[in-house]
Amino acid sequence: EGTGENVLIKHAAFFDRNHDGFVYPWETFKGMRAIGCGLFISTAAAIVVNMSLSQKTRPGKFPSLLFPIEVKNIARAKHGSDTGVYDTQGRFVESKFEDIFKKHARENSSALTSKELSEMLKDNRESKDIGGWFGAFVEWKILFSLCKDKDGLMQKDKVRGVYDGTIFEKLEMDRQSTKNHKQGFVESKFEDIFRKHARSNPNALNSEELSEMLKANREPKDLTGRIGAFVEWKVLFSLCKDKDGLLQKDVVRGVYDGSLFEKLEMERKSAK
C-alpha cells in the first residue's frame, strides 16, 4: 500500500483551474493547452476524459451534461492496465514506482526510452481492458513527447512528476517562461536594426532602409508573416515619419514597447 498524501488528487487538481474542487471540460482543455498540447489533442482530451471519468467521481449523483470531475473522488476513476503506482486510495506506492525502472529501464537505469515505455504499457495491459489500456497509452505517449530530453529519454524525476502532478506545473512554467522570453524586448536585437540598416542616419530609418530590414528578416515559406510585417511597418512609417521622411529610433522603440500607440491616440484626441 501507498503512504502519505493522496498524490492522485494532486495529479488531477492541476486541471481544476479555478480551484473549486471540480474539473469541467473547458478546464481540462485549458490545462492541456497550458502544458503544451495542441488544439486537437486538448479538445479530444476535454471530451474523452470528462465524459469517461465524470460519473465515476460522482457516485449516487444524477449525471450532469457538463461532465464535471469531482477531484476529491478521483481515486474512484482509477483505470485498469496501470502500473500500480497509485493504490486504491490514490496514494503513491514507492516500490511499484521503482519496479518500473528495474523491469524496463535497460538503456539507462534512471530513464525510459520510447520503446521501453511501450514495453511497460504492454506489460501492464489487462485482458479485455481496452479502455484502460488505450487511456494509459495515449496519456503516456503525450507526456513522453512533452517531457523527453534531447537524447529522447524520459528521466526518472519526470516520471515521478507525472504521478504526483508536479510535472504539469513545471511544464506550464517552462512554457510560460519560453513565451515570455520570446515576447521580451531584446536590446541587442533592437540596436542591430540600426547597425545593419540605418546608413543615412544612425538613429533613424528611411523608407528604403525599412524595406531592406523587412527583406532581411524574411523567413522562407513564411508568406503570411512577411505580408503582415510589411503592412504593419509601412502603415506605421506613414503615420510616424518626420518631415524629412525618417522613422526616428525612439519611435521604432515605441512600436515594440507599445508606447507609440498610446502617443498616437493622445495626439489624435488633442487634434479634435
From TrEMBL:
Residue spans crossing the bilayer: 32-53
Keywords, comma-separated and alphabetical: Membrane, Transmembrane, Transmembrane helix
GO molecular function, one term: monooxygenase activity
Pfam families with a match to the protein in the record: Caleosin
Similarity remark: Belongs to the caleosin family.
Name of this chain's protein: Caleosin
Species annotation: Chenopodium quinoa
